[in-house]
């Protein structure tokens, strides 16, 4: 069983108040992959992808080429701060608004004036914030498996799961090979989590560098940011009036009770349910790509 170590949670409201849409000095450099369509009839704005917590830009590989060709648009898959090849920060740099400002800086550096923004989970929250801060840069917004509010049940799971990941990396036998360690973490997770795609995605983030195991993300900062409330806050300057699509699976991160609050800040929203777990792009890439492409092309 996952065991929760009790913490004193905080919304860190004072710190949030110091972050605004012009706080560019706090941004970091982001790493990314580019996927180009085989054929393009006309120049269109690109699709920019932001993955979720625990993963990297490689999460989108199963659908990135398909999206590029189905929409005839360039696709850029970007690492969040504290993940993959992007810069790591301290706990003070773990706020969602800063992740949105990173995206703004990234688009400026790539000379992207407007894009279709597509975020998954934590990346979805960052893309929501980007739409609130810079709506003029968002052609359409797509969010997968993340609502405006985070329900208690999945949030509680994340607290427990973060602690499991920390404990595993601190206690795993350094003499194991990478494949042996991945098998060990898979076996431990499968005893408690039925979603085999979720388990595989997490196991694939394990790395061994200079004889030491680590994840492809900053687990210490991401855990601390969760229990300090850094990932909860969204700074709603005004509703995003553009077209948005919220796709949700069976995980409980988006519940129908949250539809009203989502429509309040995204009045032109469309909801789509896909019968998948948290990593729908891995579990059902063809169906996932089809739903997203239809929304982009229409």
UniProtKB/TrEMBL annotation:
Domain AB hydrolase-1 span(s) in chain numbering: 46-173
E.C. code: 3.1.1.116
Catalysed reaction, written as an equation: a 1,2-diacyl-sn-glycerol + H2O = a 2-acylglycerol + a fatty acid + H(+); 1-octadecanoyl-2-(9Z-octadecenoyl)-sn-glycerol + H2O = 2-(9Z-octadecenoyl)-glycerol + octadecanoate + H(+); 1,2-didecanoylglycerol + H2O = decanoylglycerol + decanoate + H(+); 1-octadecanoyl-2-(5Z,8Z,11Z,14Z-eicosatetraenoyl)-sn-glycerol + H2O = 2-(5Z,8Z,11Z,14Z-eicosatetraenoyl)-glycerol + octadecanoate + H(+)
Keywords: Hydrolase
GO MF, one annotated term: hydrolase activity
Transmembrane segments: none
Family of this protein: Belongs to the AB hydrolase superfamily.
Name of the molecule in the record: sn-1-specific diacylglycerol lipase ABHD11
């Amino acid at each position: 069983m996952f065991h929760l170590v009790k913490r004193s949670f905080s919304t860190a409201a004072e710190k949030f108040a110091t972050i605004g849409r012009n706080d560019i000095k706090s941004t970091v450099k982001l790493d990314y992959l580019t996927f180009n369509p085989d054929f393009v009839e006309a120049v269109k704005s690109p699709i920019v992808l932001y993955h979720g917590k625990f993963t990297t830009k490689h999460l989108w590989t199963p659908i990135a080429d398909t999206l590029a060709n189905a929409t005839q648009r360039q696709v850029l898959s970007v690492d969040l701060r504290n993940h993959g090849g992007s810069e790591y920060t301290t706990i003070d740099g773990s706020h969602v608004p800063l992740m949105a400002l990173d995206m703004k800086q990234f688009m400026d550096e790539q000379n992207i004036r407007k894009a279709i923004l597509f975020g998954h989970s934590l990346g979805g929250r960052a893309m929501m914030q980007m739409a609130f801060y810079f709506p003029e840069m968002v052609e359409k917004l797509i969010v997968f498996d993340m609502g405006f509010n985070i329900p208690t049940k999945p949030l509680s799971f994340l607290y427990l799961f973060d602690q499991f990941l920390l404990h595993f990396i601190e206690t795993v036998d350094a003499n194991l090979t990478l494949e042996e360690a991945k098998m060990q973490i898979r076996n431990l997770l499968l005893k408690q989590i039925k979603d085999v795609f979720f388990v595989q995605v997490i196991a694939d983030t394990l790395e061994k560098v200079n004889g030491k195991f680590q994840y492809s993300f900053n687990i210490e900062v991401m855990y601390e940011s969760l229990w300090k409330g850094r990932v909860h806050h969204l700074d709603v300057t005004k509703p995003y009036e553009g077209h948005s699509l919220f796709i949700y699976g069976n995980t409980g991160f988006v519940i129908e009770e949250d539809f009203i609050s989502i429509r309040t800040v995204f009045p032109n929203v469309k909801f789509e349910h896909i019968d998948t777990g948290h990593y729908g792009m891995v579990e059902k890439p063809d169906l996932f790509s089809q739903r997203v492409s239809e929304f982009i092309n229409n």
